[in-house]
Amino acid sequence: MNAMNAATATLPEDTDRATLVGRLHDPADGGPSVVALRDGADGELIDLTPFAPTVAHLLDHENPIALARSAAPIPRAWPAAEVLAATLEGRRDVPHLLAPCDVQVIKACGVTFVRSLIERVIEEAAMGDPARAADVRERVQEVIGGALADLVPGSAEAARAKQALIAEGLWSQYLEVGIGPDAEVFTKAPVLSAVGTGAPVGVWSRSAWNNPEPELVLAVNAEGRPVGATLGNDVNLRDIEGRSALLLGKAKDNNASCAMGPFLRLFDEGFGMDDVRALDISLTVDRPGHGPVLSGVSSMREISRDPLELLAQTTGAHHQYPDGLVLFTGTLFAPGDFTHALGDEVRISSPRLGTLVNAVSHAESAPPWSFGIRALMTNLARRGLLR
Fold first, then answer.
1. Closest CA to 100 of 130, 68, 70, 127
2. Residue-by-residue DSSP string for 124-187
3. Other beta carbons within 10 Å of 157
4. At what angle do helices 130-144 and 114-125 cross, to 10 degrees?
5. What is the structure's pLDDT at 143?
6. Is CB count within 10 Å lower at the N or C end of the chain?
7. What percentage of the chain exceeds 90 in pLDDT?
8. Mean of pLDDT values over 363-379
9. Average pLDDT, whole number, for the chain?
10. Buried b / exposed e along 63-85 (16+ C-beta atoms within 10 A)
11. Rounded to the nearest 5°, which phi and psi values hold at 259?
């Protein structure tokens, strides 16, 4: 793929009107730089690190839009198309993109769409066994499939539905978080462990039933205010979680099991929360030698809880995040009995956010996560960027 084709395949359709920021690794620095895209696909990635040494600093700035658009003097820049091409080729010996978050906590909400809620109930009833899923799916769909579509989580109607389902012997912990008053909120991955576009994503080799989860990810500053959005892949091991919800940590948090990117789109005069609520997020999985094996769309219009409600349940007087957070908001997409094969190319895209591309590997064979918080602080200090 040539450089301009890579840029076109990666960036939002309206890049010229978007405020895009991210992280770039230049091997000459031995660590990450915060960058902003200027002048569109044939423009440059401008180094913001002297003004904001981390993305968290940028999002807490009094005017991150102005900083991204007009910070000066520009200490250095990288040709955007060349960086994007190298990133998609998997090259790590030249400047390439990383996940567009750093010291923020990586949180996620689950069971936020009715379709995915029903699939979680099926996983639980099948006890993580994909061979049993088809029979279980038929019964669950027959009994509760249409009963949940219009319920408002936490409402009086939802409480009455809960009692009816208990009476039918069909109540589930997933129904509790899907239609009850409290959303499921969990820590998806450790700080700094997310991978960006072009990097492998990892599934644990023990898993025989797993899938991608295309999601909208909110970027939230230290005040708890959403200031941007990106795309995410909340890689999920369905057989592990299906055996017990207490295994959620093992199902969700493995090496390279969290992907984000390609860029973080800041909220500005042309893009905000109302645009987020209207996004369609597409997924395609191409398998070497087979072509497309999975496709679908997750529409934010069908989310059961508003993204701001999910955020309010995550942060506030009960829980603070002094370095900010990124919040996966869940997915409508529930791919039935699909499971990944090694080498699957996963493409998650939305016209306003661009395209996140990752190939599937085993978590054990993906590049190990070795650059943690101490390494970041040491690197920034060596470069004279911590003042």
1. 68
2. HHTTT-HHHHHHHHHHHHHHHTTTSTTPPTTSHHHHHHHHHHHHTT---HHHHHHHSSS-EEEE
3. 12
4. 130
5. 62
6. C
7. 74
8. 97
9. 91
10. ebbebbeebeeeeeebebbbbbb
11. -120, 145
Burial of 171 (0-12, 13-18, 19+ CB in 10 A): middle
Closest of 95, 49, 96, 68 to residue 383, by C-alpha: 49
- Dist. CA 373–CA 382, nearest whole Å: 14
- CA dihedral for 272, 277, 279, 282, sign (positive or negative): positive
pTM: 0.92
Q: What is the pLDDT of residue 387?
A: 76
Using one digit for the tens of pLDDT, what is the confidence trace for 45-60? Answer: 999 999 999 999 999 9
Q: Report the distance separating Cα 203 and Cα 366, nearest Å.
A: 9
